[in-house]
């Protein structure tokens, strides 16, 4: 399913130059041919699951073009921690004041916008990651992301329906999809690692969906 995360409104003219450069990419219409579309598969690591109280610690992403993962053209930024939750460290392993290069939330978002341009974004259970990024944009006075979004969790369910193996009430985890497709999960629970795992899963899902060569045919999923 491709989600529309916002209603388009006329934007203020006083928005920063980097946002204007980002929005200019959308003047070019996307191809309907999936092999010609640039997808950006992303994941975020966060201090928790509250959209109001928690913050992103890392954004990881990898691009796909012509059904190939561009490993050399990946993206990963760590974000200065404003909040520290020892419990979440058990999952993502990012320790406060760890000796890694980190950016302010604003600079991380700026770099992310430059990376994604007008690509179709892909994430597993995308609502969470996209909402966290949109909340970061809101904190610096910017509108929501303009990109089209695909959710591998929703798409994977369609492959199960086609093979009559679906539990319609189940939200399949990335681990379950990786296990089903025999995908290595060595780097699980790092933003870059989860983005790469999701990218492999996305390509395998596309290979199992009928009429998946055109972007519009994914709308029904």
UniProtKB/TrEMBL annotation:
Domain (Exonuclease) ranges: 38-211
GO molecular function: exonuclease activity
Superkingdom to which the source organism belongs: Bacteria
Coiled-coil regions listed in the entry: none
Keywords: Exonuclease, Hydrolase, Nuclease
Keyword field contains Nuclease: yes
Annotated protein name in UniProt: 3'-5' exonuclease
Organism (species): Autumnicola musiva
């Amino acid at each position: 399913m491709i989600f529309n995360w916002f209603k388009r409104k006329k934007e203020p003219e006083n928005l920063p130059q980097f946002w204007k450069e980002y929005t200019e990419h959308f003047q070019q219409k996307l191809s309907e041919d999936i092999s010609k579309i640039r997808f950006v598969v992303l994941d975020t690591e966060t201090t928790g699951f509250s959209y109001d109280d928690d913050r992103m610690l890392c954004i990881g992403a990898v691009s796909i073009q012509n059904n190939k993962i561009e490993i050399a053209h990946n993206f990963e930024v760590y974000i200065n921690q404003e909040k520290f939750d020892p419990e979440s460290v058990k999952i993502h392993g990012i320790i406060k004041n760890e000796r890694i290069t980190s950016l302010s939330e604003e600079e991380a978002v700026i770099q992310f916008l430059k990376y994604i341009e007008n690509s179709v974004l892909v994430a597993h259970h995308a609502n969470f990651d996209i909402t966290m990024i949109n909340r970061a944009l809101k904190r610096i006075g910017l509108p929501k992301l303009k990109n089209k979004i695909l959710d591998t969790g929703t798409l994977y369910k369609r492959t199960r329906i086609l093979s009559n193996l679906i539990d319609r009430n189940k939200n399949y985890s990335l681990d379950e999809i990786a296990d089903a497709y025999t995908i290595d999960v060595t780097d699980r629970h790092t933003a870059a690692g989860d983005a790469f795992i999701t990218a492999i899963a996305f390509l395998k899902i596309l290979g199992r969906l009928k009429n998946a060569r055109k972007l519009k045919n994914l709308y029904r999923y």
